């Protein structure tokens, strides 16, 4: 098909998440590609949504977010991360973190501004920078001593006179690294020295396995130049509700809101009221979810290793990257894209080929990304099918 897509979006095609989930459905594959739970979110939150609908909270929301929700977010972030945001002027509720990303780019990046990006990166970062007319500069995450990190000299040389922002993601999708205080300090020092903004995507902030999640906004002198993005979907296993937010000082929030008002104007009203309940009362659920994901992570990593993959056990997120050389060799395929297609269509297990998250595909073409936010039954079925590769 000869599409008429505008030049600024043509390079990005269809997002890999939609593509792999469709391929998985078409071939009845176990879907370990797109990251979403195949179990339901907590009952008390679903009940709160029904109650909000029945209470008539069904018209447009406050554009920047319903007051109980922004108040709940502010209280939680202050208590947990030690950063204070004024709920009414410094927090903006968006349609999932995925809207917060282009709202931040469109609201704060001028055409020609450079944005430093760690690769592999979540695909919408790159597309959102392009929509804003920004120019990406890449820094590689590479495996070193069993985890992924970046080289500090490479980071330094990615900054230039035109750098407007650096986009950080911790816990990091797809590598599973939880950036350490030391790594974040290195990024923060450069941002301060070059007077750059930091855009910090922390949607997996609760999904860590022992490693401490640190928000770069909590480091000295960083709150004033940082936009923190997060969301509700992963934490409460309700990804379809699409509730996310951006937190930043009022001067930066003004830019984000000027884009947000014309992107979605406001987010679903009753779901915001239910999300507020979840954040206020969800501590026990989150602790249970962490324990569940820790068990799933360890089980899937062990089974992948047994089959011939080399899993890199993640410190956070609900994804495992696994090196696939031995398996793809046996199948006679090359690279992650070919392997992901073959696994989905012939073995019946879908995973994400992470090279699509890279400017330099070779950084990730030796790996596949498996999501483990699934029931034990789903994971067992995936393993049963993958065993044919052993
Ligand atoms: N963040 C999710 C993932 O990495 C997908 C989000 C989406 O599909 N847009 O799997």
Q: What are the defining features of this structure?
A:
390 residues, alpha/beta, eight-stranded mixed sheet, 13 strands, binds glutamine
Number of strands: 13
- Ligands, deduplicated: glutamine
pLDDT averaged residue by residue: 97
Taken in chain order, the helices and strands follow as HEHHHEHEHEEHEHEEEHHHEEHHEEH
| Beta-strand share of residues | 15-25%
Strand order of the largest sheet: 2-9-8-7-6-3-4-5
CA-CA gap between termini: 39 Å
Give the helix proportion (percent range).
40-55%
For the largest beta-sheet, the strand count, sense and barrel status come to: 8 strands, mixed
What Rg do the Cα atoms give?
20 Å
Topology:
Blueprint: H1 16-26, E1 30-31, H2 43-54, H3 67-81, H4 87-90, E2 91-95, H5 96-108, E3 114-119, H6 123-131, E4 135-144, E5 147-150, H7 152-158, E6 163-169, H8 181-193, E7 197-201, E8 226-231, E9 243-247, H9 250-263, H10 269-281, H11 283-307, E10 310-312, E11 319-323, H12 325-331, H13 335-347, E12 349-350, E13 367-371, H14 376-386
Parallel strand pairs: 1-12, 3-4, 3-6, 6-7, 7-8
Antiparallel strand pairs: 2-9, 4-5, 8-9, 10-11, 11-13
Helix pairs in contact: 2-10, 3-10, 5-6, 5-9, 11-14
């Amino acid at each position: 098909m000869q599409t008429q897509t505008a030049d600024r979006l043509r390079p990005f095609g269809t997002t890999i998440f939609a593509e792999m989930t469709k391929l998985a459905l078409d071939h009845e594959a176990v879907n370990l590609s797109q990251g979403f739970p195949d179990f339901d979110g907590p009952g008390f939150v679903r009940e709160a949504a029904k109650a909000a609908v029945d209470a008539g909270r069904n018209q447009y929301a406050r554009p920047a977010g319903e007051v109980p929700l922004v108040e709940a977010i502010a209280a939680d972030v202050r208590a947990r991360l030690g950063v204070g945001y004024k709920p009414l002027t410094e927090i903006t509720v968006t349609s999932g973190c995925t809207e917060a990303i282009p709202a931040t780019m469109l609201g704060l990046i001028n055409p020609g501004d450079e944005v430093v990006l760690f690769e592999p990166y979540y695909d919408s970062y790159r597309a959102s920078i392009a929509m804003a007319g920004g120019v990406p500069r890449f820094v590689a995450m590479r495996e070193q001593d069993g985890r992924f990190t970046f080289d500090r000299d490479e980071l330094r040389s990615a900054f230039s006179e035109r750098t407007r922002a650096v986009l950080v993601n911790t816990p990091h999708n797809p590598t599973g690294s939880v950036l350490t205080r030391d790594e974040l300090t290195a990024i923060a020092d450069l941002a301060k020295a070059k007077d750059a903004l930091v855009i910090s995507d922390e949607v997996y902030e609760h999904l860590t396995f022992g490693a401490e999640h640190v928000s770069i906004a909590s480091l000295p002198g960083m709150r004033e130049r940082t936009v923190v993005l997060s969301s509700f979907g992963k934490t409460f296993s309700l990804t379809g509700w699409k509730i996310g937010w951006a937190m930043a000082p009022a001067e930066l929030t003004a830019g984000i809101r000027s884009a947000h008002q014309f992107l979605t104007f406001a987010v679903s009203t009753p779901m915001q009221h239910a999300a507020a309940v979840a954040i206020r009362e969800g501590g026990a659920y989150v602790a249970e979810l962490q324990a569940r994901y820790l068990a799933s992570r360890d089980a899937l990593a062990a089974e992948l290793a047994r089959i011939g993959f080399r899993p890199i056990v993640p410190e956070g997120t609900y994804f495992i990257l696994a090196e696939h050389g031995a398996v793809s060799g046996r199948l006679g395929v090359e690279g992650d894209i070919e392997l992901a297609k073959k696994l989905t269509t012939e073995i019946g297990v879908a995973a994400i080929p992470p090279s699509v998250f890279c400017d330099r595909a070779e950084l990730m073409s030796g790996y596949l990304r498996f999501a483990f936010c699934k029931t034990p039954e789903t994971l067992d079925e995936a393993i049963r099918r993958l065993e044919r590769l052993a």
